[in-house]
């Protein structure tokens, strides 16, 4: 079971991952905005990685290559690198990268001890130039992960455009999501289901004071119909 404790004056979070008996510490800077804070879906996805990674149907390769979208503080990607011994690329908007890089560097030793690695890169959703820079000369990513990324309606189409670049072939997109706005969520999933096969792989109990809990989804590219 994932053990979470608050430490430091900024509300930094310490996550002890039982499966590997190791800890990651994540710095928040709440005063700088949403991307600098920790959110329920990230903790939920890390807990699932720690307790039951088989639920995510991850590929059985020697070192999984993972791309995290909208990394924010980097919790999910850093934890995945440590738990799975994966090569993880953390991405976000330019102004978010300094804190993201700080957290990656702060946890680099714990990740390396498990055979994992971290890279921090810029990725603005819908910007083909940013996506191309991650694809150029690199092996394809095995998995794309994200948590709480369906937040602003004007970013739904750019997010889906970026997903179409990386979620191809056998690659999957694993997304932890807390439904907050019925209309906005409906728009996203309606559009997403036109492009991907979408399955729910895990659902948490309702959060305190809410009707629903975090759900984790797995998206894969639609197969061409057999002729």
UniProtKB/TrEMBL annotation:
Nucleotide-binding is among the record's keywords: no
Keywords assigned: Methyltransferase, Transferase
Source organism (scientific name): Musa troglodytarum (fe'i banana)
Signal peptide (residue range): none
Keyword Methyltransferase: yes
Molecular function GO labels: methyltransferase activity
GO biological process, one term: methylation
Name this polypeptide is given: Methyltransferase
Domain of life per record: Eukaryota
């Amino acid at each position: 079971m994932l053990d979470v404790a608050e430490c430091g004056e900024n509300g930094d979070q310490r996550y002890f991952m039982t499966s590997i008996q190791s800890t990651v510490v994540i710095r928040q800077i709440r005063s700088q905005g949403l991307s600098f804070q920790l959110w329920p879906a990230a903790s939920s996805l890390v807990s699932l990685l720690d307790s039951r990674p088989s639920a995510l149907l991850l590929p059985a390769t020697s070192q999984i290559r993972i791309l995290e979208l909208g990394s924010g503080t980097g919790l999910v990607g850093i934890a995945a690198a440590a738990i799975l011994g994966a090569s993880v690329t953390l991405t976000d908007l330019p102004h978010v990268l300094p804190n993201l890089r700080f957290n990656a560097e702060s946890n680099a030793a714990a990740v390396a001890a498990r055979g994992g690695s971290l890279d921090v890169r810029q990725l603005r959703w819908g910007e083909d130039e940013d996506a191309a820079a991650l694809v150029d000369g690199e092996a394809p990513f095995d998995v794309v992960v994200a948590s709480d990324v369906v937040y602003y309606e004007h970013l739904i189409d750019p997010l889906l455009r970026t997903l179409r670049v990386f979620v191809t072939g056998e690659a999957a997109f694993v997304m932890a999501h807390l439904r907050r706005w019925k209309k906005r969520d409906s728009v996203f999933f309606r559009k997403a289901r036109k492009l991907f096969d979408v399955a729910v792989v895990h659902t948490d109990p309702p959060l305190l004071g809410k009707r629903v809990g975090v759900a984790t989804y797995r998206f894969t590219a639609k197969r061409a119909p057999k002729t």
